[in-house]
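Exercise 7b. Backbone tokens:
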């Protein structure tokens, strides 16, 4: 089992996606990236049109999959009690896992994860507040052990802290994932406006932890002499 895709945006373009919906350039990239990387996705929301990058991949056959993304709300305006989806993982039969960005006055920005079961019913976590800064979100989905079992799970982490695990789910006969979207993928309400930042989108076909982006290595210059002074230090 392995990483099926790892979208970094570091070339400062959307070429890592198989297709895009940009609404005349509202979906783009820019520097710097989140997690101290080079570049990131920028989703300019100025109407209710969905904008996203789509990544297609070989359909998963394993008993679990896991994905991670970075988000920075970047002071985007969302009317209270409104929301929109920022990530969809789906199959030929429709939606599977979705990540929702929600806003409520007094609570601020909040995240929720949902997943459809074999009867197309959505099972959702509670809402979890995030600050107006960058965060990484990780989701693990494990299929049920048989068509008759109700032991599938969906687990949500934010910044490495497990927030919730949905258990007792009937997720077995639905098709397994072969497509993922990142952006403002659906459900944008009137009055939502601003530019959302997203980055570092990874999906694995197993339950291995992905975790945060590794900190960049600190490169120490090599000198041809050993007796030198660092400026400002005597």
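Sequence design result:
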């Amino acid at each position: 089992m392995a990483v099926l895709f790892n979208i970094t945006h570091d070339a400062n373009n959307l070429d890592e996606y198989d297709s895009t919906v940009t609404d005349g350039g509202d979906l783009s990239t820019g520097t710097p990236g989140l997690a101290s990387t080079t570049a990131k996705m920028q989703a300019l929301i100025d109407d209710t049109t969905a904008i996203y990058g789509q990544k297609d991949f070989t359909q998963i056959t394993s008993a679990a999959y896991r994905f991670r993304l970075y988000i920075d709300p970047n002071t985007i305006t969302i009317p209270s009690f409104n929301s929109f989806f920022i990530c969809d993982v789906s199959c030929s039969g429709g939606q599977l896992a979705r990540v929702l960005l929600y806003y409520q006055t007094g609570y601020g920005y909040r995240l929720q994860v949902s997943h459809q079961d074999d009867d197309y019913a959505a099972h959702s976590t509670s809402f979890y507040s995030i600050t107006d800064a960058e965060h990484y979100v990780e989701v693990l989905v494990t299929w049920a052990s048989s068509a008759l079992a109700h032991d599938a799970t969906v687990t949500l982490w934010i910044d490495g802290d497990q927030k919730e695990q949905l258990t007792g789910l009937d997720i077995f006969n639905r098709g397994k994932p072969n497509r993922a979207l990142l952006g403002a993928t659906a459900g944008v309400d009137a009055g939502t406006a601003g530019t959302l930042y997203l980055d570092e989108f990874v999906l694995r076909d197993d339950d291995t932890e992905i975790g945060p982006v590794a900190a960049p290595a600190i490169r120490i210059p090599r000198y041809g002499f050993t007796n030198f002074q660092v400026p400002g230090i005597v």
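Instructor comment: The chain has one domain: 3-204. The longest strand covers residues 94-104.
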